[in-house]
Design goal:
The structure is a single chain. With 110 residues, the protein is an all-alpha fold. The chain contains 1 helix and no strands. The chain has one helix spanning 2-109.
Length: 110
């Protein structure tokens, strides 16, 4: 009987030691999980912040592209107007030159 009580006491002591070790392990795991969660949240926050910066940059580029297109279209329109004016001036110059040549030919014929 005494052997059985001693054996039971040892078993109980061993089990209590194992329970304390498991409690300690559990506590350490909770700290690791908590750290993992914090690290993951930090990564998520940093990624979200970077995504917002990229989205803002994209919007700025879109605005810039739109402004450039507007500016280029205005320049194209201005060049078209200038081209039309130059063609009219060239036509007028040809007419004036032709009239001058005709007048000179008439003078030569006299």
């Amino acid at each position: 009987m005494e052997f059985s009580l001693r054996n039971e006491a040892q078993t109980r002591s061993t089990l209590n030691t194992q329970v304390e070790q498991l409690k300690s392990d559990n506590s350490q795991l909770k700290r690791v999980v908590s750290c993992d969660r914090r690290e993951k949240q930090e990564i998520i926050d940093a990624t979200t912040s970077e995504l917002k910066r990229v989205e803002q940059a994209i919007e700025m580029l879109k605005d810039s592209e739109s402004k450039l297109k507007t500016d280029l279209n205005a320049q194209i329109d201005e060049l078209k107007i200038n081209n039309t004016e130059l063609q009219r001036a060239r036509s007028t110059d040809r007419k004036v030159a032709q009239k001058t040549i005709d007048a000179q030919n008439q003078e030569l014929k006299k």
